[in-house]
């Protein structure tokens, strides 16, 4: 049976109320202390979060200024986009160009000739013929007016292709050519009287003209009948040339230039010209000052955002006697002082061009610490000293030798002026034949080669035929470079001949560059029985007098120049000038912010410490709750004991009262 308790019945006191009040008094002081401590920690945590956010924004604003390539930026524009358009990668030299386009590049176009009786097709199902077509790409020496075909020079960058024709209809021949994906496209055109099979090279330019030889199933490869109607070579030109393969022709500032393509990438450094029609246009290349000006303004704005936040968090109002959340905080003060020092200390030696921000119009307000920009001075300096801005802001090296270029650095690279000395120039691997090549290639006889180039192995098969030495060199180069195993690995070669002896040179530099012929039916016929293979060499030398590490044409410094990366071209040995390496404002500030903002940086570790303290306060609250439960039990036990004593005393009092009331009164009479 449950026990029913009613505290206070015996004594008449409000025991529950008394216990509640006593517990409240017991909890009040520690609760206030815990709440006040937590509130202070939360505010401090929020303050650190604000600082971290402003520093992250500041670091983001530095990205364009830390990248040396940003300061090589150029804008480029055409005065007449109907004639030509032009784009650049931001590194085109500042200049003006007058361009006069006289001829656009054209593809080679051929078509069956209906003046030949056997080429008068009236339906797409009419039979043309069967057999094999061999396509070569190169320069045709052909006069369409006299129909004289004087010669052909194969393009070494395009290999010959063969197409087997089993369906001899116009449709069948068209489809076979297109499905073979050989670099030429076939189509059927109706001229109002007859259907013509048109064949067009996929690529413009004289070097991409078509030569077509036929192995006709009617056993006559040159007559104007059957598949021979498509022949276009030195033996027969039965298919008509409707448009010659033509290079684009134009002048830049009066200099004659030709291009196989209407997209020209080599005429103006680091720029692509797209020729669209005959005419003239001016191309202007100017410094991309706007990009740098915008980046500097973004940096100043973000820096001022950081200053505003730290000023707000650390201020003290003497009138209201109210201090900022982080007033007097050593970490905040240390960060602020370091950031201010990093943007005030000169870059490089004082007296050189652009060593302090004030020289480009960026000054510090002595009262607030904010930065101010005088855009008139900034724009003037961008115009007169643009090349020095990279050193002012980024980690940048300026070389004195045109064949030595600064590529990059690491955090370990120390500021300095380093001498560069080359002891070994980078070279490419090459294989040189031991005897003149056999110029007749026969299928399954001497048409195969197994090669190992730059450590990658593949096999190639040459197209059967009789070649000149230069033609066979072109065929070999194109077959090697077309091999997917090589091309997918970025491997290519250049094949040359001298007196019929072939040289195969890898286009990679360094000790990993090597060309070997390991077998194949054509090995001896092409390079002889004892071809010589010579591996390439890595560039070697010193930077700052300390031996550097070479790989291909890349030389990487050690010692004080550790991580300094240079690209060295040419074969000149000995002293190759100097590289003046400096760390600009954006680079050194970015490095400092990296350390602050990383996961184990002081901001994150301090914030984590505060969070841990807040979590411990929750534990203190739980402990206080448990202690109050214990206090309540003790109080109730004490009050219960008091109730028992009061009850006993009350009972005794009542008993005595009853006994006293029952005693006889003095002088009374009883009957």
Structure description:
Among the domains are: 74-104 and 248-287, no CATH class; 109-243, no CATH class; 397-426 and 539-583, no CATH class; 428-534, 2-Layer Sandwich (Alpha-Beta Plaits), CATH 3.30.70. Helix 1 (15-61) packs antiparallel against helix 4 (289-314), helix 1 (15-61) packs antiparallel against helix 11 and helix 1 (15-61) runs antiparallel to helix 12 (602-662). The model has no long low-confidence stretch (mean pLDDT 89). The strands form 11 sheets. Strands 1-16-3-12-13 form a 5-stranded antiparallel beta sheet, with no helix packed on it. The chain is built from 12 helices and 38 strands. It has 671 residues and is an alpha+beta fold.
Topology, number of strands: 38
Unreliable stretches:
none
Tell me the radius of gyration.
Answer: 45 Å
Secondary structure: helix percent: 25-40%
- Average pLDDT across residues? 89
Q: How is the largest sheet built, in terms of strand order?
A: 1-16-3-12-13
- The fraction of residues in strands falls at 25-35%
Indicate the structural class: alpha+beta
Features:
elongated, 671 residues, alpha+beta, single chain, five-stranded antiparallel β-sheet
List the helices and strands and how they pair.
Blueprint lengths: L14 H47 L1 H4 L7 E5 L5 E5 L6 E9 L5 E3 L19 E13 L4 E7 L6 E5 L4 H11 L3 E7 L4 E7 L7 E8 L23 E4 L4 E5 L2 E5 L3 E2 L6 E5 L3 E9 L1 H26 L1 E2 L4 E2 L6 H13 L19 E3 L6 E3 L1 H10 L4 H5 L1 E5 L4 E5 L7 E9 L3 E5 L7 E2 L6 E6 L2 E6 L3 E2 L2 H14 L1 H4 L5 E6 L2 E9 L5 E5 L3 H5 L4 E3 L5 E4 L2 E2 L1 E3 L2 E3 L8 E4 L5 E10 L1 H13 L4 H61 L9
Antiparallel strand pairs: 1-16, 2-15, 3-12, 3-16, 4-9, 4-11, 5-6, 5-7, 5-10, 8-9, 12-13, 14-15, 17-18, 19-20, 21-38, 22-37, 23-33, 23-38, 24-30, 24-32, 25-28, 26-27, 26-31, 29-30, 33-34, 35-36, 36-37
Helix pairs in contact: 1-4, 1-11, 1-12
